[in-house]
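Kindly inspect this chain:
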Amino acid sequence: MHPFRTHVCSELRKSDVDKKVILSGWIHNRRDHGGVLFIDLRDHYGITQIVIYPDAGFQYEVGHCHKETVIKFAGCVMARTQENINPGMDTGEIEVKAQSYEILGPCDSLPFNIFPEEQAPEETRLKYRYFDLRKPQLHNNIILRSKVIQSIRRRMLEHGFNEFQTPILTSSSPEGARDYLVPSRAHPGKFYALPQAPQQFKQLLMIAGFDKYFQIAPCFRDEDARADRSPGEFYQLDIEMSFITQDDIFCVLEDVLHGIFGEFSTASVSEKPFPRIPYKEAMLKYGCDKPDLRIPIEMLDVSEIFADSGFNAFKSAVEKGSVVRAIPVTAIADRPRSFFDNMVSYAQSVGSKGLAYLVWTDEKVKGPIAKFLSDEKLQALAQQCNVSVGDVVFFVCDKAPAASRIAGDVRIKLGADLGIIEKECFKFCWIVDFPMFEWDEDHQSIAFSHNPFSMPQGGMDALLNDEPLSILAYQYDIVCNGIELSSGAIRNHRPDIMYKAFEIAGYKPDVVDEKFGAMINAFKLGAPPHGGIAPGVDRMVMLLANEQNIREIIAFPMNQKAQDLMMNAPAEATPQQLQELRLRIMPLPKE
């Protein structure tokens, strides 16, 4: 017989009655009922109830063990009486009568309770993360993550992809976020960098002729934490394909994501193919390039209606280049005045000067700006916004970027406050047709809008003959429930097109050669058309687990200050380590 267990704690059933068994695990809970001691024994797989009668001779000792003590019981499986069956447990029809026990891992006083679960401060939870991971929900989140990654691998292999590993120690990236630098002992004064993403390596694999690559890739960026982004490191499903169009990328990723979200959730998932929304349309209708399609509100541009209206505040702003965004909402005309006042206050808190609105009632159109608009203008607004009695339209007026952002925030706030965000669903969409270039107000020049290494739509002909700000790129984002899972692109694999694109953005060829020489040289030796994408594994699991904070789906996360409180990292290096690396710590400048 195995020295520690014959079964796991989720395994025994009524068919096992009278079997001699050994179980090991943690003391999850204990109860003393009339001199009979009940122990809920927990392991990775589940819980089994252990019964210790007074004649066992060790009831007192076990009864005084701390919760979370690791303990082994040998005993006999018994059927529970009908009134004691627990239908909420897999092992609820049986219990094990303990005949002997052994303490395998004693437990001191607890930093916080696992059962009943205690809400401990985050710093305490992170310091004792190994202990925190015993909580059922968090434990299950980490198991979910493991299963999701297993499923991703299987699905990618079924699509004919090969898994390759790319370097962790590499060179610093001249673009993007801040790098983590690693000093070299063998080359004093020189540094490696941890990869922000395997971008260049995966493109080089395509140039090497491998055709279909994927990797569950660790990425490292020295940037601040957010609820949906872990500081320091994260993992992504890194994909690259050769001889493809963006439709081929969409087809593969839609199949993988639809399968993953269907496999690990009972919520509905967008049907394939996922909706494709041009960037310009997304900014107009939703105010952002990561729209939450669960909110049944779409915005409109009504600048022309206000351009020659009697509402001078909007009229004069439109004449100076501002726009007016309308946010129509159905069946909320009966909301109290406080609701509208709160919406105005919210709009002001996110940067708006105010929030105008109109209310369509049985009698007439009401609202703070109604008296400034003619019946003709009100009718035009009703027609364009497709509203009727009982509906309300909110208005934001500002320069286009600010108006989109503010109106988009108001849209999300309305969805939450009105309780109209669709539940139990994953709404996916592609954002496509990003602009290749944009106007940089600070430098009064043309700059890259998103990804400088994307192929412009129309290729060299577009770069030579079209107005730069009208050129679109083969860039795309995949979005789910308002969360961007990834950006991707068809790559600019032609040196001549790359030099021209950078020239438009103000870079001379020698600057391109200096900053991106490795890629340019590789492209000169025969590069296939290729493209890819890299959806975040952390964010996917976060959505599936219905968690609001990404630290709840990572086994050993850092805190918001990028500190590992459990392992005490980052920590000071010893003088010997610094000497080996030829480094000296400079004192901070005095304030």
